[in-house]
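User: Structure tokens for this complex, please. No commentary.
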Amino acid sequence: MNDLCPQRNFIPTVIPIPRYRYTPLAKSYIIFQDLKKLYSLEEGLDKGTIFPELYIPYDPRKHEGGHKYELF
Amino acid sequence: MSYSEEQLMREIQKVEFAVVDLHLYLDTHPTDREALTLYNQLAERLKMLKETFSRCYRQLVELHPSYQYPYSWVAGGGWPWTMRGQYMCEEEEY
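Assistant:
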């Protein structure tokens, strides 16, 4: 009778580790921006930012065959 | 140095963009005096340019004084973002 229950013969193969204890939460951070050289006003308007360190145009050729995060 | 209407509009767009960008920067860097100084310089310049534009050509900012007669809001020369000669579509004639 109990064999009909699919849970009965289930043997867990992975013993769950309490996440809060062994694995830290994911953390993200960004580098704090410093004021450095700025673009000229003309160049800034054309490029969409006056901060050279934030000018990261999307280049599809860089992303062929998957994501590569090599920006600099 | 005097600007044509198109040049003055382009100058306003350049300065305003830089002011907006610096404003965003100052949001996260409120104690950066150098940036604040630059922001103030550009913001003053932007104010001056906009006043010049409205005195010389037509009202630019809504609800601001208009110095031209007859009154001209848009009719005088198109919207600010459709600067004549600068971004005009080549296929069409306006």
